[in-house]
Amino acid sequence: MSNDVVQDAIPSQSGGGDQVAPPPPHGAAADAGDAGYSKDLKARHINMIAIGGAIGTGLFLGAGGRLASAGPALAIAYAVCGLFAFFVVKALGELVLHRPSSGSFVSYAREFLGEKGAYVAGWMYFLNWSTTGIADITAIALYTHYWSFFTDIPQWVLALIALAVVLAINMISVKIFGELEFWFAVIKVAALVVFMVIGIVLLATQHPVGGDTPGLGQITDHGGVFPTGLMPVIIVMQGVVFAYSSVELVGVTAGETAEPEKVVPKAVNAIMWRVGLFYVGSVLLLALLLPWDKYQDGQSPFVTVLSKLGVDGAGDVMNLVVLTAAMSSLNSGLYSTGRILRSMAMAGTAPKFTARMNASQVPYGGILLTSAVCVIGVGLNYVVPGKAFEIVLNIAALGIVSTWCTIMLCHWVFVRRAKAGLIERPSFQLPGSPVTEWVTIAFLIGVVALMWNDPDVGRKTVMLVPLIAAALVGGWFAVRGRVRALAAEDQLKR
Prior knowledge:
The protein is mostly helical. Helices cover about 70% and strands about 0% of the residues.
């Protein structure tokens, strides 16, 4: 990609009450969508949001079905996907230090790939989080039904209540969002640490788990590392990538913290060991405690282990944890899409009302738009309560892959510009550029291509790609006139 096709950001007029965006660093393009935000997120908020973004229902609940499908090799799948997730967030962290922005990778796409790139990145991210939001409220309703007190309440009512509560929290202030995410992350980390301590003690003492003695024999005596072959491991990669889908939140939150240059590098670097400890470590521990075929889809693998130990209330505790994880995901989705849509609206690629902010400096327009799509999810819970989760989860995976590919493309162009002397790279850098970017992109595209081998769900998801592409093309033709008008208006102001 030549430098002459890389466009600057297109700042434009904002709604009433917005502040003037601060001047960007040398060589960086300003984003009008960054004006007006508070800087209320503290270092502890960012650090715990980074943890929360790397730990969710994909581990607490999804690991059970994946262990039953891929066996102990699931730990390898988590390690591989975790490495590429780290590359993505490392690249994003470098871009954040180049220019912190609440528009995050959409703002960087505008700067390095042009407005079309920002348009595609933004709407694919919206597709990701709006469908993930539907999955989240569906999961919340299902988890709540676990307790008999709520079983008589229709699933769609519980989904609507969950959406209303999280929407209200997001509207109050970014500080409230940060506090909520902080405590959500504390609950998830505490639950994992307690389980891992229990698991290590069981392993060290050779205490039987439901008649099985923990140790390497649980792997070697039950088909080895790849008991079902290599293909099941490859197929579960899609779900494993989805499990890491919130790591990019670090880039969005950087626009609302006072010292991103200090906070972001620490948060990004910590993601690597967290992935190794919490994901790879816990899955390996699960494989050592019980044979892989003792785990099952739809049940938390941690509950499986604890229930075989006769621990009363294990299901209740873990259900509360996965409920917390789903609430955290929904909370993050509304937060991030609100900021992304505002950045897009200021350039003309999103509806005007998504640029609006309330008195608490919250971009409520974009948050409401995402919530409106989630209301469709409430309808799905009413019409097809048994299929709502599966319908939307796979669509979200396409949005995640698109987002991560965009981040790596932006970083590649960023490095090229730095080598040309147009901008300066920070000391915090993604290693191995440009090989790292292209290997990561190839891996992500490969994950989507390999989804075709799953005829039940994956193939149907891949078949949606042409439809999504057609919708994006049609949408661009609908907004390009406004984009050009705002760009021309900005040129007159300069």
